[in-house]
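Encode chain A's predicted structure.
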Amino acid sequence: MFYYTQRDMLCQEGACVMEVILPGLAKTLKPLRKGRKQTQKQMAALLGCTEQHYQRIEYGTINLPSTTLMFLADFFGVTTDYLLGRTEDPSHGGNGE
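Encoded structure for chain A:
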């Protein structure tokens, strides 16, 4: 059974095997936020989380639910692939669409 601890470690049967981070999100989210002239506090309110939790999202140090990822993509008018750093084109996915 897999689960995430508070330290964002992927653990299986008590043995942590890797730290979970999203470097692509860390690269794209802050410039998008600043382009919309939003503060981290405003983004946290929009997502219904604390400012500290939003900072962790922006730094790419926690995993996001797919619904949050989709919300952010829609809010910024980009694809989820762009948010995750899987493509450099904000308007198209990385699968040839």
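The first helix runs from residue 23 to 35.
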